[in-house]
Amino acid sequence: AGGRILQANEAFMELTGYSRADLVGRTPDLLQGPATPEAERERLRRALEGGYPCRVELLHYTRGGRPFWNALDLLPFRRIDGPGACWLGLAHDVTERREHEQRVYEAAYYDDLTGLPNRARAQVRIERALRDAHRNRGKIALLYLDLDHFDDLRRAYSRPELNDLLSRIATRFA
Question: What is the pTM of this model?
Fold first, then answer.
């Protein structure tokens, strides 16, 4: 997305695993891959075309293929040695923050044993499905399962055995 890399500092080379020779003259696209969010790439493209600063978070890849989340601040400035503009890119590795956010999200909305959406996530999905059905004059189907006599199973089996049972049931319905 955009022009060519003119310079890279040591910290950026350490983060990406690329040498200065690998980077200078290339486009920043060499850091992107198939999982780089398209919406963020589009915001970046619009900022570059419009000449205004922006901040995006992109999934980038090191030279060795390891993914990392890059919070990229792009700031335009005028060249003093000729016409046109240059861009200063400030990269911040935010991988740990993004991974933490993902763990928090999963803990809030997914059962840690089965990996299936929990009650809170199911509620969000049901409400969305109802809104969509209402807006499109459609219908939805909902299957709700309740395991009868689960307390009897709890008394008869160990926790690992019950966990295995629940995981098997969940896998069959997933």
Answer: 0.70
